[in-house]
Design brief:
Layout lengths: L6 E7 L6 H9 L7 E7 L5 H6 L5 E6 L4 H11 L4 E4 L10 H11 L5 E3 L1 E2 L9 H6 L7 E2 L6 E4 L1 H6 L11
Parallel strand pairs: 1-2, 1-4, 2-3
Antiparallel strand pairs: 4-8, 5-8, 6-7
Protein backbone atom coordinates (compact mmCIF):
# COMPACT_ATOMS: atom_id res chain seq x y z
CA UNK A 1 0.00 0.00 0.00
CA UNK A 2 1.25 3.47 -0.84
CA UNK A 3 2.64 5.57 1.96
CA UNK A 4 1.26 8.66 0.25
CA UNK A 5 -2.33 8.49 1.49
CA UNK A 6 -3.87 11.94 1.79
CA UNK A 7 -5.96 12.77 4.84
CA UNK A 8 -8.92 15.13 4.93
CA UNK A 9 -10.95 16.21 7.92
CA UNK A 10 -14.71 16.79 7.98
CA UNK A 11 -15.82 19.08 10.80
CA UNK A 12 -19.44 19.90 11.59
CA UNK A 13 -19.83 23.14 13.51
CA UNK A 14 -22.75 25.04 14.99
CA UNK A 15 -22.23 28.01 17.29
CA UNK A 16 -18.71 26.76 18.00
CA UNK A 17 -16.74 30.01 17.87
CA UNK A 18 -15.57 29.47 21.44
CA UNK A 19 -13.79 26.17 20.66
CA UNK A 20 -13.27 25.83 16.92
CA UNK A 21 -9.94 27.68 16.85
CA UNK A 22 -8.38 25.18 19.24
CA UNK A 23 -9.91 22.25 17.34
CA UNK A 24 -8.54 23.49 14.01
CA UNK A 25 -5.16 24.24 15.58
CA UNK A 26 -4.96 20.63 16.75
CA UNK A 27 -5.63 19.42 13.20
CA UNK A 28 -3.04 21.70 11.63
CA UNK A 29 -0.35 20.75 14.15
CA UNK A 30 -0.48 17.00 13.45
CA UNK A 31 2.78 15.10 12.92
CA UNK A 32 1.27 13.73 9.69
CA UNK A 33 0.08 16.53 7.45
CA UNK A 34 -3.62 16.94 6.80
CA UNK A 35 -4.24 17.87 3.16
CA UNK A 36 -7.74 19.36 3.45
CA UNK A 37 -10.13 20.46 6.18
CA UNK A 38 -13.77 21.17 5.42
CA UNK A 39 -15.74 22.93 8.13
CA UNK A 40 -19.48 22.89 7.54
CA UNK A 41 -21.09 25.70 9.49
CA UNK A 42 -24.51 24.24 10.23
CA UNK A 43 -26.53 27.43 10.64
CA UNK A 44 -24.47 29.16 13.31
CA UNK A 45 -25.61 32.54 14.56
CA UNK A 46 -22.22 33.37 16.04
CA UNK A 47 -18.79 33.95 14.44
CA UNK A 48 -17.99 30.24 13.88
CA UNK A 49 -17.55 30.61 10.10
CA UNK A 50 -15.41 33.74 10.51
CA UNK A 51 -13.08 32.11 13.04
CA UNK A 52 -12.67 29.00 10.87
CA UNK A 53 -12.26 31.00 7.67
CA UNK A 54 -9.47 33.07 9.21
CA UNK A 55 -7.23 29.98 9.20
CA UNK A 56 -6.99 29.96 5.41
CA UNK A 57 -5.76 26.96 3.42
CA UNK A 58 -6.08 24.06 3.94
CA UNK A 59 -9.22 25.01 5.89
CA UNK A 60 -12.35 25.62 3.83
CA UNK A 61 -15.74 26.70 5.18
CA UNK A 62 -19.11 25.75 3.74
CA UNK A 63 -22.24 27.30 5.21
CA UNK A 64 -25.64 25.62 5.26
CA UNK A 65 -28.99 26.03 6.94
CA UNK A 66 -29.29 24.10 10.22
CA UNK A 67 -29.53 20.43 9.21
CA UNK A 68 -27.80 18.56 12.03
CA UNK A 69 -24.30 17.15 12.50
CA UNK A 70 -24.82 14.09 10.25
CA UNK A 71 -25.84 16.28 7.31
CA UNK A 72 -22.87 18.57 7.98
CA UNK A 73 -20.46 15.63 8.12
CA UNK A 74 -21.89 14.17 4.91
CA UNK A 75 -21.57 17.50 3.11
CA UNK A 76 -17.97 17.83 4.25
CA UNK A 77 -17.10 14.27 3.16
CA UNK A 78 -18.55 14.95 -0.28
CA UNK A 79 -16.41 18.10 -0.54
CA UNK A 80 -13.19 16.25 0.32
CA UNK A 81 -11.14 14.54 -2.39
CA UNK A 82 -8.60 12.89 -0.10
CA UNK A 83 -7.88 9.15 0.18
CA UNK A 84 -8.87 9.07 3.85
CA UNK A 85 -11.48 10.92 5.87
CA UNK A 86 -11.36 11.79 9.55
CA UNK A 87 -14.04 13.49 11.60
CA UNK A 88 -13.36 15.97 14.36
CA UNK A 89 -16.08 17.84 16.20
CA UNK A 90 -15.56 21.58 16.59
CA UNK A 91 -15.30 21.27 20.37
CA UNK A 92 -12.79 18.39 20.41
CA UNK A 93 -9.00 18.37 20.02
CA UNK A 94 -6.49 15.79 18.85
CA UNK A 95 -3.08 15.15 20.39
CA UNK A 96 -0.24 15.81 17.95
CA UNK A 97 0.19 12.16 16.92
CA UNK A 98 -3.50 11.32 16.47
CA UNK A 99 -3.48 11.17 12.67
CA UNK A 100 -0.09 9.43 12.40
CA UNK A 101 -1.10 6.64 14.81
CA UNK A 102 -4.36 5.95 12.98
CA UNK A 103 -2.71 6.31 9.57
CA UNK A 104 -0.10 3.71 10.56
CA UNK A 105 -2.88 1.30 11.52
CA UNK A 106 -4.53 1.62 8.10
CA UNK A 107 -1.20 1.29 6.29
CA UNK A 108 -0.44 -1.88 8.28
CA UNK A 109 -3.71 -3.56 7.30
CA UNK A 110 -4.81 -2.95 3.73
CA UNK A 111 -8.05 -4.87 4.40
CA UNK A 112 -9.16 -2.46 7.13
CA UNK A 113 -11.73 0.11 6.05
CA UNK A 114 -11.40 2.30 9.12
CA UNK A 115 -9.83 2.55 12.52
CA UNK A 116 -10.55 4.38 15.73
CA UNK A 117 -8.27 6.11 18.18
CA UNK A 118 -8.49 6.44 21.91
CA UNK A 119 -9.92 9.42 23.75
CA UNK A 120 -9.31 11.25 26.97
CA UNK A 121 -12.08 13.24 28.58
CA UNK A 122 -11.38 16.70 29.95
CA UNK A 123 -13.23 19.57 31.54
CA UNK A 124 -13.06 22.91 29.79
CA UNK A 125 -11.23 25.35 32.06
CA UNK A 126 -13.69 28.21 31.43
CA UNK A 127 -16.54 26.36 33.15
CA UNK A 128 -17.42 27.79 36.54
CA UNK A 129 -15.64 25.96 39.36
CA UNK A 130 -18.92 24.75 40.89
CA UNK A 131 -19.90 23.15 37.57
CA UNK A 132 -16.45 21.58 37.18
CA UNK A 133 -16.80 19.93 40.60
CA UNK A 134 -20.14 18.35 39.60
CA UNK A 135 -18.59 16.63 36.59
CA UNK A 136 -16.98 13.24 37.07
CA UNK A 137 -14.76 11.77 34.40
CA UNK A 138 -11.91 9.39 33.89
CA UNK A 139 -9.06 11.35 32.27
CA UNK A 140 -7.14 8.18 31.28
CA UNK A 141 -7.12 7.31 27.57
CA UNK A 142 -9.86 4.82 26.72
CA UNK A 143 -11.24 3.10 23.65
CA UNK A 144 -13.44 5.46 21.71
CA UNK A 145 -15.88 4.35 19.06
CA UNK A 146 -16.76 7.96 18.38
CA UNK A 147 -16.80 9.94 15.17
CA UNK A 148 -13.97 12.21 16.37
CA UNK A 149 -11.72 9.17 16.74
CA UNK A 150 -12.40 7.65 13.31
CA UNK A 151 -10.18 7.54 10.24
CA UNK A 152 -11.76 5.83 7.21
CA UNK A 153 -10.97 5.14 3.61
CA UNK A 154 -13.17 7.49 1.61
CA UNK A 155 -14.72 4.71 -0.47
CA UNK A 156 -16.38 3.39 2.70
CA UNK A 157 -19.03 6.05 2.22
CA UNK A 158 -19.72 5.02 -1.37
CA UNK A 159 -19.81 1.30 -0.51
CA UNK A 160 -21.84 1.44 2.70
CA UNK A 161 -23.58 4.80 2.56
CA UNK A 162 -23.33 8.12 4.28
CA UNK A 163 -24.53 8.94 7.78
CA UNK A 164 -28.27 8.90 8.39
CA UNK A 165 -29.41 12.51 8.32
CA UNK A 166 -32.70 11.63 9.99
CA UNK A 167 -30.87 11.36 13.30
CA UNK A 168 -30.14 14.81 14.66
CA UNK A 169 -27.77 13.59 17.41
CA UNK A 170 -25.57 10.55 17.97
CA UNK A 171 -24.91 9.97 14.28
Amino acid sequence: MSGDLSVGVAMPARNAMRYIGEALGSILSQESAVADVVVVDDGSDDATAHVAGAFGAPVRVIRQAPSGPAAARNRAVRALSTDLVAFLDADDVWPGDSVSVRLAALRADASADMCFGRMSQFISPELPEAEQRRLHLDPRPQEAWTSSGMLARRDVFERYGYLSEERRTGD
